[in-house]
Amino acid sequence: MFLSRHFNCVPLVEGIYCLEAKEQGGAMSNAGLIDMGDYTLIFDTFNTPQAGKDLRDAALYYFNKPIRYIVNSHWHGDHVRGNQFFSDEVIISSSRTRELMIKTQPDWLARMKKLLPNLEEDLTKLNTSLELKLNDSKQRELLSQIGYLQEIKESILTLEVTLPQLTYDRKMTIHGSARTVELLSVGTAHTECDSILFSPSDSLAFVGDIVAVDNHPLVVDGNPLSWLEALTYVERLDVNIIVPGHGPVTQKHYLQQIKRYINDIIHISESLIREDMNVDVNHIEIPEPYLGWNYGSIFYRNLEFLAKAASN
User: Fold this and answer.
1) Chain mean position to CA 156
2) pLDDT for 18-66, tens place per residue?
3) Rounded Cα distance, 82 and 48, in Å
4) Strand locations in 219-267 (E)
5) Domain definitions of the chain by residue range
6) Is the pLDDT of residue 250 over 90?
7) Do 79 and 46 touch, CB atoms closer than 8 A?
8) Does residue 153 surpass a pLDDT of 90?
9) What CATH number labels 1-312?
10) Which position among 51, 90, 158, 308 has the lowest Cβ density within 10 Å, counted as fewest Cβ atoms?
11) Residue 130 and residue 76: Cα distance in Å, rounded?
12) Which residues form a coiled coil (predicted)?
């Protein structure tokens, strides 16, 4: 088995692996390896160059064949910043995802380089917070933040923004000698444009961040109503295995859980407006079904975003 500090390698079906992010590494999100028969296809490339390097090494370790295609599901950095280790391969995304990468990623890197001197101070504060008596969920979140900053610190000086060379708008079909996969744009959901990879012969889909398992999904860069439509679209596919952008691999039924979460935060945010609570979300308790989920702070970011959007 290939070992990495960034991810665990989880076999799904013959020729397909989920590389599941570890909490303390530089991956931050999940990626996928797909044996197409005569070449390898990779879905998403993690958050840092160092995780991207291990991703490349894992692909060669498991399949020992040329890597031909890399797919970026959406523009968020934790899914594209390992791209630089695949500059000789063909990187694919939707047209809008590439545009958003051009708009956001160089600016992010420039800002982070300026903030590099402050990272040590931030790490010291977080480590001090760990000494307090916190619940398990908050402890995990702090440890994850510390790991994230340590990995970011390592990556900033070596990161090269690497863009997709091939784009599509709605659907792209990729044929290999072992299987055929479909890249499908589901439109606005978690971001302005999210793509999934569907392997019909395996009844399996890599769905990026339109699904997060046991993690609060972030809505502030997308639209919750069209996100619900995207989830319904995936439900209609002949798919059993769902590989989320964050958290462990799940099955089709979990799409209903994400739908419930989105509907719940919509209803809570609407109630804030009705009660004229000035978009103050801090007094709201996380609903019981989501109490054990990671990144509880995202719940409050989501509520604030939705409440403000509803009040405008």
Assistant:
1) 20
2) 999 998 899 999 999 999 999 999 999 999 999 999 999 999 999 999 9
3) 5
4) 241-243, 250-251
5) 1-312
6) yes
7) yes
8) no
9) 3.60.15.10
10) 158
11) 28
12) none
